[in-house]
Design brief:
- The structure is a single chain.
- The chain has eight helices and 14 strands.
- By secondary structure, it is of the alpha/beta class.
- A seven-stranded mixed β-sheet has the order 10-9-8-11-12-13-14, with helices on both faces. It has a five-stranded parallel β-sheet with strand order 1-4-5-6-7, sandwiched between helices. It has a two-stranded antiparallel sheet with strand order 2-3.
- The longest helix has 16 residues.
Amino acid sequence: MEIYIPEPKIFACKQSQHLAEEIAKHYGISLGNVITSTYSDGEFQPSFEESVRGSRVFIVGSTHPNSDHLMEMLLMLDAAKRSSAKHIAAVLPYFGWARQDRKDKPRVPIAAKLVAKMLETAGATRIITMDLHADQIQGFFEKPVDHLFASTIFLPYLKSLNLDNLTIASPDMGGSKRAYAYSKFLKSDVVICYKQREKANIISHMELIGNVEGKNVVLVDDMVDTAGTLAKAADLMMERGAISVRAVCTHAILSGNAYEKIENSKLEELIVTDSIPSKQNSPKVKVLSCAKLFAEVMLNVNSNKSISSKFLM
């Protein structure tokens, strides 16, 4: 007797609607139908308007603040679990709250661990995400985690620029591993920025470790929030004799006056993915889509094929 295997289904949280549509298009299926009802006090309730019983469900949604984005993902996971979906993958192009991955002072939460537990409790049987702020966050989950790298998107673009005297830079000591990985593929030198923070998002001092004179520099980081670090690093490198400075950052949070800082800085270009919806346009910001990467991984997950080729770093 032939066993019927339901088609996989892809659903979108509201904040990632456009990206999910592009993922579904690359995957080759239509995006599933979800209706969200909202009460007058702001409480909301997502509802799957089609059966998911026995299906493999992919729910696409980045969990950047505000907290409604995380809450929507949790509610949709719970709805899928209570609707008898067989496999439920939380597809998180950007895993929010990840900067709180350890206790860096007394009496503070480890939010990344808390979020991981909430996702699993809500019903996620698999996590698919990209460029976590810290690799060890994978260990916060008891379920399988597919941790993708945006380098598979960025490296072909950087190669297409044909930059001479290329140097890869890390904007801080913590990102040195990522910078060295890029430099290995691009066969380039590496420099590192050493920075001291007065408090969150405010830099009191920055120094450069390495030589950038006569170099085309590419700063590499997992996210850009206020853009203060990138702007300061770009200005410092140009003062030290760099020919040009670009930045590659996977997740474009770009809060506050980040766009203004980018426009006024010596940065020639900021290259990001669409893991977080763009708030506004800027001639200096180039967005590369991660939809095809996620679609290919989801196809392989559904057919139980290897996805190691997507782990370029």
